[in-house]
Amino acid sequence: MENSTTTAVAPDAEDDIAPIDLPKQGIDPQRLPLPEATQPLKILWQYVIVLTVIHVMALLAFLPYMFTWSGVILGVLGHFTFGMLGITIGYHRLLTHRGFTCPKWLEHTLAVFGMCNLQDSPARWVAIHRMHHQHSDHQPDPHSPLASFLWGHVGWVVCRHRDLDRTSHYERYVRDLLRDPFYLRLERKEGWFFVFLAHAMLITAVGAVFGYAISGGLISEAIRYSYSWFVWAVAVRTVFVLHGTWTVNSLSHVFGYRNYETRDNSRNNWLVALISHGEGWHNNHHAQPRSAAHGHRWYEFDMSWRVIQFLEMIGLAKDVVRPKANTTEG
Ligand SMILES: [Zn+2]
Ligand SMILES: [Zn+2]
Fold first, then answer.
1. Checking CA distances to 172, which of 9, 215, 222, 245 falls within 20 to 30 Å?
2. 263-273: per-residue pLDDT in tens?
């Protein structure tokens, strides 16, 4: 394990993702077209197939045969481990916005957890999200729901976006991240997807061993538990985390209240905050993107922020960026 800490985001990277000069007014839900770089629309069939398969697998949870308490409990724990630690805290607040720093081993661990949610590699996720912050709800925001709600939720995931495949795009948005060979390697040969597969296989295999052990050596129970753990702790959890992230992009740019007059249509949405560990306080987040806390008012509970505070308390998180106190009431 290395003891070095991550360096704060390089100033040049920070400059590149600063919001560009866009009009504050004039957001017209009827007029925002799909991003130019997605025209003509081309479906990414590999994404459609993988996402369809994981949704169908998740639906198998309705079969009584698939139910085990251990599977359900692992699904809930996985929502915290992979969803919150991996996506919300790892991909988003740490890697995208550098809301805090931590030892490299912890940063990489959080990134590995993030890859277990079928949400692409860390560099691609971060590049897309930084682009979203720079252009939010204006062209060429990759996933504004003002183009269409379905587009903002999932359409953008399954359609080709030419800019996102360009090296220049990566150089512009994630130069800081790709200086680390760990992230660079993951870009090659879909390395992140194999991390997902490996974790799914591991959970399934441990499920089989667990079923075999608690049934006193029944093969049929070993098989049932391996299915159950796959369905609940991998498929259901992954689908839940996917829609949690997607609702931040869709619902939190359409429904909810605003504490801040930001230049986009971002909203604070309690339902999204609940299912995505605090990410639903999205208007706060667009107003102060680097703040590691997204809940700015006392009643805006932000589970991820509590965890970051805990990491800070035990000395694992440093340089924690807090909301600017004088503007918290917008
Ligand atoms: Zn947003
Ligand atoms: Zn963000």
1. 245
2. 999 999 999 99
Quick check: pTM over 0.85? yes
- Please choose, from the candidates 115, 102, 135, the residue with its C-alpha nearest in 3D space to the C-alpha of residue 21: 135
Buried b (16+ CB within 10 A) or exposed e, 169-194: bbebbbbbbbebeebeebbeeeebbe
- What is the CA(145)–ligand 1 centre distance, in A? 10
Considering only CA atoms, which of 117, 121, 143 is closest in space to residue 54? 117
CA of 74 to the centre of ligand 2 (A): 28
For residue 13, being part of any structural domain is answered with no
Per the structure, the count of domains in the chain is 1
Q: How far apart are CA 156 and CA 67, in angstroms?
A: 33
SS3 50: helix
- The DSSP string of 197-243 is HHHHHHHHHHHHHHHHHHTTS-HHHHHHHHHHHIIIIIIIHHHHHHH
> Minimum-distance ligand to the CA of 97?
2
By residue range, what is the domain housing residue 74? 42-327
Cα 94 to ligand 2 centre (Å): 10
pLDDT in tens, 209-230: 999 999 999 999 999 999 999 9
Instruction: Give the Å distance between the CA of 320 and the centre of ligand 2.
Output: 16
Q: Is 80 exposed, middle or buried (0-12, 13-18, 19+ CB in 10 A)?
A: middle
**pLDDT tens readout for residues 259-317:** 999 999 999 999 999 999 999 999 999 999 999 999 999 999 999 999 999 999 999 99
Angle between helices 219-229 and 191-214 (to 10 degrees): 140
Say how many Å lie between the CA of residue 131 and the centre of ligand 1.
Answer: 10
Q: How far is the CA of 244 from the centre of ligand 2 (A)?
A: 14
Match 């999200």 to its residue by tokens.
129
Amino acid at the residue 208 = A
Whether 111 is covered by a domain: the verdict is: yes
In a domain, 34, yes or no: no
